[in-house]
Amino acid sequence: SGPAAAQTRELPVLEPVLPAPAEEQNGTDSAKAPKVNCEERNTTGIDRFTLQILNVSQDLMEFLNPNSSDCTLVLFYTPWCRFSASLAPHFNSLPRAFPTLRFLALDASQHSSLSTRFGTVAVPNILLFQGAKPMARFNHTDRTLETLKDFIFNQTGIEAKSDVVVTEEDWAGPLPSVLTKGIDWLLLFSVLFLASFVMYATIRTESIRWLIPGQEHEHQE
């Protein structure tokens, strides 16, 4: 109940609090260590930072410089995928959050060779390129502006602008946020090829059976 007892009660409170600032600082330093050293592009003279969508005749490799260390975030999507549509407004806002980086998007159904090359078997699929080399893949199922910001920061150490949010313009485009009806020509071709192969194999088997001695008589009986 005296001064000595009060001092004794304070000691257990002070001891565990002292190391906390040093541990927090170490955790912050390790989180900010970039995995990819990106060369930030010069934004002088650029008034509008927006996403660029590649058309069917444009090759992704033409937009990636293998001799540089600048970074590009590339989205593989399809316009009839509901997950791609829900991601669209968040991805549209990224160029304003990271003006020193480049952002591209391409329809995976129109660039099937690239999808095979980079293993984008499912959409939406996001790859971070340094030059022309893929360095990291976004694997989170929660695809929002905040999770995308965290992904880019953890990989590059580049901080996003804090005042950037998803706006009505981002819902409008350039990446469509409304599902469009379309035909997956690659899937259709695969189904037709498989059906043709089965039909050919069946006809071929019947032809061989008639040519084998004894098979014809068994059929007739």
UniProtKB/TrEMBL annotation:
Give positions of region: Disordered. 1-34
Q: Where is the composition biased (Low complexity)?
A: 10-24
InterPro entries xrefs: Thioredoxin-like_sf, Thioredoxin_domain, TXNDC15
User: Out of the domains of life, which is the source?
Assistant: Eukaryota
Q: Which GO terms describe its cellular component?
A: cilium
| Sorted UniProt keywords | Membrane, Transmembrane, Transmembrane helix
One Pfam family here: Thioredoxin
Positions of the Thioredoxin domain: 14-157
What is one GO biological process annotated to this record? cilium assembly
Looking at the UniProt entry, the stretches that span the membrane are: 185-203
Q: What is this protein called?
A: TXD15 protein
Query: What organism does this protein naturally occur in?
Result: Certhia familiaris
Q: Which gene encodes it?
A: Txndc15
